[in-house]
Structure formats: structure tokens, C-alpha cells
Fold:
Amino acid sequence: MYFGTDLIATWGLNLQFGVTGVLNFAYIVDLAVGAYAYALMTLGPSAASGGFQSYFIGFKLSPILALIIATAAGMAIGGLLSLLGLRRLRPDYQAVALLVVSIVTVTVAEADLGLVNGNAGLTLIPNPLGGFGPTQSGWAYVVLVGVLAAVGYIVVRRLTDSPFGRTLRAVRDDEVAARGIGKNVVWLRAVVQIVGGGFAALSGALLAGFIGAWSPGAWQYVETISLLSAVIVGGMGNNLGVMLGTALVPVLIQQGAQYLPAVAGHPGLAEDMSWVVLGVMIVIFIWFRPQGVIPERRPRYRRLLGLAGAATGGTISPAGATQLPSRAAAAATLPALHLVSRRAEGDLAHDRPLLEVKDVVVQFGGVRAVDSASCVMQAGQITGLIGPNGAGKSSLINAVSGFVRPNHGEVLFAGHDVARLSAERRANMGLVRTFQLPRLFPNLSAIENLLVAVPNQRAERTVGVLGGRSVWGKQEQASLETARELLEIFELAEKVDDMAGTLSGGQQRMLEVTRALMCDPRLLLLDEPLAGLSPHWSEILEQALVQLRARGLSMVLVEHELGIVDRICDNVIVMAQGKVLATGKMTDLRAQEEVQAAYVIG
Amino acid sequence: MNLLIAAVGFGIASGAVIALGSLGFTLQFGLSNVLNIAYGAFLTLAVFIGLLLVNANVNPWIAMIVAALVTGLLSVAYYQALIRGLLRRGASLGSLVIATFGVGIALEYIIVSIFGPEVQSYGLQGGGTVNIGDITLSGLQVAVVVLACAIMLGLHLLLTRTTLGRAMRATSVNRTLARSCGIHTERVTQITWFLSGVLAGIAAVALAMVTASFDFTLGSTFLITVIAAAVVGGIGQPYGAMLGGLIIGLTTEISAAFLSPAYRDVIAFALLVAMLLLRPSGILGIQSRRHNVAG
Amino acid sequence: MSSAERPTVHLAAEHVVAGYGEAPVIKDVSLEVSGGQVYTIVGPNGAGKSTLLKALLGIVRVREGRVVLNGQEITNRPLEHLAHLGVGYVPQSDDVFDTLRVHENLEMGGYILDAKRRAERIEVVLEIFPALKSMLQRYAGTLSGGERKMVAVARVLMPDPTALFLDEPTAGLSPELTRRVLEEQVRVLADLGKAVLIVEQKAEAALKIADHAMVLVTGTVALEGSGQEMRENPEVTEIFLGGGRAPAAPAPS
Structure:
């Protein structure tokens, strides 16, 4: 019985913490809201109960309707709690804020204010199966909880073991990178707070109905930790692991402790000790086995994609790297690359510059990293952005991609001013970037890193989550094909199922560029993509960039190694001390004294 | 008006205790960048060590010193055994918080299983009162305020006038540079955790002295107040903790006087959440100068 | 004992391999620098210049090879021990204690000295940088770029180190300031008998003051020679201003 209700709660918590990385120390509040909502919905008006308990409202609804309303109430509270996530706080600050919310709510409920009968709590809560109290409908109730838990499992699986779950895991692994590929992190976190809140509330309502009573003593903040320990011990992100964890920790250790014989002179000893054991277990697992008893499993694609054995290597021949192939010839050699520049082709039809930066200022404290910079980037070209260290190149890229809000100025992308839009909005518009230090999702496999980047996934919509594979299967299959071809081109086919975090530095960099291509970019901002790459990888990347341009993709290349800028950039912008120093062809720029001065002499 | 002035008096008295507790918390955070939830359990521990001694007829001030020293030593041991290792393993901020939570719960319930959940008291109530204008405080409260001021002054001198204090600040702001100057940052960190344990001990025993009664939840409740003060002032910054303590002390006592004592803690907590949402760096906090997304 | 009476300092790195993750960033780099010399390391961004410096200091783990200071092996020695051996380090950024006052920064620089000697050294350092006298009470975090660098260099000079590691001390400075920092400060330090190892991106200016120099490309030594030779070598300009690939790394000598 407790196993069933706890399980519903821990699955919800696993969705929040294990899968999405939201550390919700106020989870127990969701649960309590469900319990109180159920109680108030089923109890009659306060005055009618003979006056021994006072509460503000009572509806005397049918228990089944009450269960549904309670779940909805939990979802509403979950949504409210997610408002705390609007400010991008350090995760531990946010956790403390939620902890405080948890304590405050309990304090308010304990204060006897006629809301929910204060410290004494509510009693005589009707059982969903009729009657009051635990004794009267024992096994039937177990079956009810079992059925609801099974339904819960199906729902939670749809959410976690699906492309949507993959997106949630991306948010957990690296929030910044997730925004970089156009995921609305705040919204996704709100979704898991809402859904998780529903799970918690259902669990609370079932508990209240079973026990027939509910009081603040049942939802002190430590109860969240009890549920959390099930996730940590069982296996973060793994629903079956969490099931095991739930059986072990909250059920076996905590409930079990109540059945131990009392020690003379120490009435609550067993219960106290169960908390001690729980605390120690949390520490032991975080220290020795942070992934839990049954770690998260990632789907494997190698067999599915027919990538058995060693890969055949890239389609790009590194030979003849210095020769620019003609556009048509280049396009012909790379079948997959046409898939990644669908939107980009449309931009070629316009005369206007694809990107226009006007008077942009980026200021950190007293330092002007970008100081009234203006420049244009044309569609269908590779624009080089060069300059010595500290010239403001990365800051400009941050301002263009939305990771830093410019203090002043406009950023016109295909004619629209995007300077005030969020990074994820810009990524969805096709303004996609890579980072100077590659930012991948380390606990997703290489191919999952690519799949998660696909924009407008049907699996991320409500209908996709509820409808399952029949809704998103076809799109996923197409994405898989593109991803497979890209992995082969970039010689990463062998690493298909390897966790991105285990790849070498060069492979990570290549994978990040590949992931950016999966976003269907119109303008790709590459922040020093060649830094630290071996000559072999550099040549593959260089060729790919040239061929992507041939397919109509526009790019900005921030680079220090001027050789490649010379070879592949159509136009070059030189920055120094936050300002645009010069623009033009590399050959012309090299002759300019001020460029030389900025670069070599300082 | 008299009510307000009286409340200000109480506010200063409780603010002084909060500031002490908050100082200890903020020092740990400043040096190790860990939000240590177990700090609450250390507060409880100190109170019960104090109780043990007071019940054995030890002078309460001596009990305070002993409790503070023991808590300080346990705090170092805790840092050395757990926090340092987790930091070296590169544990995420989230799992660090959970681990400190785990320790906190374990320690708290060990204390319960030894001392029981009953409400306890040092039995120091009574004694003279001191009147300053409209403010009436117990002799004990005045003594605690004086003690807190002395400790804060001492800490100020330590941090600004001594090589050790400067090394603590230097380690807090830039560990690698501190090491390159020859500072044994590991030892400095250990000393800081000892000091923060001592401050926890003094604050907790002082709190137990001036409040009539307490039980094992004293630490976890006081912890939130302490964090609120630290965050309001600017977490990691000693002067912020002092200022934050005073602000929290005043607002809670004034709101308790004019609204309802039941809301005393709620006001403090609301202040904390509001601060986190509006200005997470706190009143004295420095907004991070370089927001370097690209790494 | 003054610098002049000291036995001359000698620092050598022998076939150092180092890096953070799996693949090493620094692959088999050797160098040698003695008292009175400036050794300049130049190279494009991402070449591993800063990492090399950090490896020699033990901040980044050295996996193969060794680092020897005055005949004593200091490979992977804890950073805090190096100050006692006369090593001073100015990082590229975060080179001062922002929340400490300028005079406190200087005192932390002289952490390993006793109080009397520390006071003496502050006098000496203020003689070298008289401009600091007016800003002793300011917090280092409120200083401008040039002032910060001055504090950083003054701080590192406090214990009178014999070997100096400078990581792009001119980053973000104007060309004129760059020239002055390099010629009037860095070069002068070497002339005082110290061994100076300096990482710079501004090749021309940094090679001018160098006795010896290397060009580092993707973690290996691409070119090496006296400062004079390197300045006259057209390949160096090539690497920086493009027009061709970096030359393949020469076989280890």
C-alpha cells in the first residue's frame, strides 16, 4: 500500500530530479496539497462535522472526482513552484528557496487559522472505496493504488523514455547548451514541475484517503528527502531503479522501522534510527555510487542503423584540401548535407544582408567588451571574424546568439531585430552557434546529442508525448537517417552509442558542429571550431564548411588560425579592443598596417 | 510607538544572534562554495552539548565555550572527511546539497535518539532586566548582544588586520592565485571551517540561553533564518552576514509585534525567497563582473 | 641577500606531456631558461601556451617528462610550495585579489616573508611602481586594466622571486602600454638576474625582448631559436598572419 503511493510520488520526483535535474525540495508540498484537496473535496462543510475540526471549505464530492481535482490542484501548485525558476539561479540556491517554501507552507498550515485545522490536521476523510480508516477496505484499496500506479508508470514512461525524455535529459546535462539548440529550458522545467506535482498530489490524495487523516506531521520537509533517497539509491533517471529504491528506502527502512520492537526507555528509537540510516545512505551513494543501484540506460542505435563493426570512414577525402571544389561538385559529394540546409536556401533569394550588427555595445562592469561594433554578414558566405585575444569576438558572438544581452544596439537577422529575443528563440529562427569550449550533453550518447537538436519535434508537443510513437515515429526515423549520415561524414560513426562525455576533445568539437547542423541553421556561428583539432579533423571540418556553403548555408567563423580564414572566408571582419577595425578580403587586410599592428605588434 | 521601540530592542538582540550564526555559515560558503545544510544539525548539536554541561551545573558561559570548541572540531572533521572529498570528485552543486542534507538528517536524529524529542531548557530565565529608554531587555540578552558585538569586532580585525584573515579572504576570492603566493589554502580552509563551527556553537548556545525552551528542531529552523540573513546581506561576505542578521532580526521582531508571532519565521523566509528572486547576490553582493558563457 | 649574490637560477622542462582530459594538450615540449634571460612562448590561440605554463607550475598535471628548478625536480609539486623556491606566477586573468585592497594584495604577495621583511619589500616595490602609492587603499577589483596589471606584477615581485612565469601580461592593453610593459618591466626583470618565462600572443613585441623563444602550435614546438632569429624568421609571421599552414612539427631534437 505505502509502496504503491510512494512509488507514484517517487516516479514524479524522478521525472523532476533524476531526468530533468530540478532539485525540488518542496516536492512534499505538492503531495500535501493533493491530500488536503482530496480531504476538503470529500468532507462536508466544516460546521456539519460537529465543530471538532475547523477548515475553510468542504464540498462533499464523490471521492473519484476528488482524486482528479486533487491531482489538478497538485499540478497547479507545481506550476506555481516553477515560477521560482524564472530567475536563473544557481541550482543549490534554487533548492534552498524551495526548501524554504516547504518549511513556510508547513508553518502556515500548523498555525491554527481555520484553514485546514492547524496542527491537529483533518480526520474522518472518506475512503475512495467507501467507509473510513484503513481497516475497512484493505485489499480493494491496494488494487486501486496498484492500478493507478500502473497507469502512472505508463505515463511516466511516455515522458522519460521517449524523445521528450531525451530533451529533458539535455536540460539536466547542460542548460546553456540546451538553450543553444533552441530548447525553452524554463518552460520544460515548468512542465516537469506541473506533471510531477500531479503525481505527488495523486499520491497524497490516495494516502489521505487510505489513512483517513492528514496533518502537518505527515509532510515535514524531511519527507521530501525520504522520497529523494529512493531516487538516489535506486538510480537517477531510471524508473525501474527508482521502483527498487522506493521498495528499499522509504518502504523497507522507514515504514519497516515502525514494526521493530520498541526499546525500553527509547520509544521512538527505531524510527529515529531509520532516519539516521537514510541520511547515511544518501551520503554513501553520492560518494560511492552517484548513479544509483540501477543506472540510467540509454537506447542503443548501432545495430538499428546498420553500423555494425568498424565504420567505413568519411565520405570526404582529406586530399586536395587547398582546392576549392565548385559549388555543384561539392554538393554532389555530400548527400546528407542537403538535409541540413533546408531553410538556409531561402535566404539566398534576398538581397539584404542576412545579419546586420548595428552599434552593439556589450559591457561587463566598467569594461566594454564590445564597443559600438557594426558589421554585416551576407547570405551564402563564410564571414571570418578575427582579432587578437580580448578583441571582443566571443562577446560579439554571445550578443548575436542571445547569450549576452547587448547594452545598446541592434542585431538584425533576416531583417528582424533579434537583440531582445532569448537565445532559444534565436536558435529556433536558425541563428545557431557553437561554443569555444564544446558544450555537449555528456550523459547522452553521440547520436542522441544530434537527435535532441532537431527543431520542432513532434515528440516535444503535448500530442506527441501523449500519442507516443505513432505521432513522432516518422519524424524520428528521418532524423535518425540524417544523424547517421552526418556521423559518417564527420567520422564519428564508430562512436554512435558512446556517451558524449567520454569522447576525446577533437571528437567533442566535431560532434558539437554536427549537432549545430542538426538544428537546421540559416546562419551558423562557429566560435573557434578548429582550436585543438588535429590536422586530420581540421581538414574534414574545413571541407565540410566549404561544401555547406555550396549548399547555401551562411556561416560566421571566429578563428585564430588565419590560414583557414584565408582559404575559405569570403569576407573578413577584424576586431580589436571591442571595435571593428576593418573589413574586406583577407589578402587586402593582410597588407593593411593597422591590422598587422593589432595582430602581431599588439 | 513604544511597541515599535521595544520591538527594535528585541530585534537587535535576536539580530545579534542571527548575525553570529550567519557569519559561520557565510565563512564556510565563501571558502568552499558549498551550501551546507548540515550546518543546522551542528547548531542543534552545540545546543545539546551546552545542555549536557548546564545540567551538570557547569557555568553556562563556560558551557558555551566548550560547546563551541567541540562543534568547531567536528566541523573541521566533517569538512575533511566529506566535503573536501566530494569537491575533489567534482560533485555537482545539487548532489553536494543533498549530501549535506543527508549528514544533517543523520546527525539530527542521532541527537534525538540520545536526548529525545522533548522540549528542553537551560533554565536561565529570570534575573534582572535592563532598561534603555523604552527598550526592556533581560540581562542575558544584553550580555549576548555585547558578546556578539565583541565577536564581530574581533572577526573584523582578524579579517582585515591579520595575515591569516587576509589569507582567508584571498583564498576565498582566488584560490589558485593564493596558492601561487605560497598560501596553504587547504590549511586556511580547515581553519575557516573550525571558526565557522565555533561561531555556530556560540550562536546556538546563545540562542538557547535567551529563548525559554527548545527541542531538536532548533537547528533546522534557525538554519533557514541564518541562510536568509546570509543571502540578504550577500552570501559569502562576512559584513553582509552581519547586516543581514540585523535586518532579519529587526523585521521578524517588528512583524511579530505588529502582526502575529506565528508569522515571525514566515516573514524572514519570505524575505529570503524575495531576495533570491530579485537580487540573488544580496545587498552587499558584487554582481558577477564577467558573465562568460562561452567559457 | 640581494639578487646579484644569489647563485644563478636555472629552469628546465624536459619532454613534458600534459593535459586535462584524455588527449594531452602539451605533447613533448622541452625548454630551458636561466637567470638574466627572457624566454618567450608565442603561438596562435588554442596552441596550449597557457596550459604549458600551468603544467610547468603543477596546476595542470604533467604526465610524462620532468620540470627541474636549480637541479631540483619540481614536477607536479603543489603550487604553494613553489613560492618558497622563488617561483612567481602572474596568470592571464584573475591576476589580483579583487576583494582585497591594493596594499593587502602586496602583503599576500609577500605571504611567505616575515612581517619585517614584508614591510621592507613593500617599500622596494613601491619604488619600482610609484604610481601604486596613491591607490594602496583601493580595492583591486575597482582598478582599470593597466592598473590591475601593475598591481599583479608588483604583487609577484614582493618575495623577490628568481623565476617568473608571466601569462600574457599585455592582454587587453593598448599597443603603447604593451610596449612599455614588455620593455620597461619584463625586460628589466630579467636584467635584474631573474629568469623570465613569458607567454604572449603579440609575437612581434614579445620577441623583441626575448633572449630565446619558441612558437607553439597545437601543443608542439613548431619553431625555436634566439629572439633575434625568430624575429627574422619569415615562417613566424606566416603562422600568425596565415597564407599557409603551420609548418609540421620538426622531429624532436
Q: What stands out?
A: The beta strands of chain A are 355-364, 367-377, 382-386, 408-413, 416-417, 431-433, 523-527, 554-558, 571-576, 579-584. Chain A has three domains: 2-220, 221-297, 344-601.
